[in-house]
Amino acid sequence: MVAEHDVVLADFHADWCGPCRMLDPVVETLAAEPVATVTKVDVDADQQLAQSYGVRGVPTLVLFTDGEQAEEVVGMQGEERLRSQIERYAEW
């Protein structure tokens, strides 16, 4: 999926994670916008993928551009900060 889109935001999360649930509305808002493709990865269901990206805590948000990992942020993030990071890589 990452290679198929210009900008992808991967949300590594877990159902039992409180901050992940708090971040859900922010991620859903960003997913509704055309700037980036958003995907959610449940670290419990896909441990191997999470491990391959070095995810040690949740929530972890990994931003990919042109198929390559560009940025990673861990913990609760505000919508404006995430939007700003995504827009740095989006081609208008």
UniProtKB/TrEMBL annotation:
The record marks 18-19 as: Contributes to redox potential value. It comes from the Archaea. The keyword Coiled coil does not apply. The active site is at 17 (nucleophile), 20 (nucleophile). GO terms for cellular component: cytoplasm. It holds the Pfam family Thioredoxin. Disulfide bonds join 17-20. One of its GO terms (molecular function) is protein-disulfide reductase activity. The keyword Electron transport applies. Keywords: Disulfide bond, Electron transport, Redox-active center, Transport. The record marks 11 as: Deprotonates C-terminal active site Cys. InterPro entries: Thioredoxin (IPR005746), Thioredoxin-like_sf (IPR036249), Thioredoxin_CS (IPR017937), Thioredoxin_domain (IPR013766). Residues 1-91 form the Thioredoxin domain. This is Thioredoxin. It comes from Halobaculum saliterrae.
